[in-house]
Amino acid sequence: MSLLAQEIIGEIAIMVTFCCFDFRKAMRKGYMELYDLNRDLINGYKIRCNNHNELLNNLKLVNQYIQKAGRLRGMHFKIELSCF
């Protein structure tokens, strides 16, 4: 193999090495961005889940208060309402 061919092969090998390095670097950056986005989505889901559970608990309390208030009516008033 001539000296010129060896130099060209050497330069191509260096270019391929840098190309692979850049590709790996770009892939790593892409995966890090994907990881960050996934983490943000999971955190948002946890916040929505907690808000939903808190809302359900508060609705249960409101329902209990309404039921208790309904039971506080006197028996005479219940009878009058049932006649209508």
Q: Can you give keywords for this protein?
A:
84 residues, 0% strand, mainly alpha
Furnish the topology, listing elements before pairings.
Elements: H1 3-71, H2 75-82
Q: Give helix and strand order, one letter per element, not per position.
A: HH
Overall radius of gyration: 36 Å
Taken as a percent bin, the fraction of beta residues is under 5%
Mean of residue pLDDT values = 80
Structural class: mainly alpha
Helix share bin: over 70%
Residue stretches low in confidence (pLDDT < 50, at least 5 long) are: none
Q: Would you report the number of β strands?
A: 0
Q: How many structural domains are formed by the residues?
A: 1
* First-to-last CA distance: 110 Å
The coarse overall form would be rod-shaped
Helix segment count? Answer: 2
- Describe the main β-sheet briefly: none
How does this model look, in words?
This protein is mainly α and about 80 residues long. The chain has two helices and no strands.
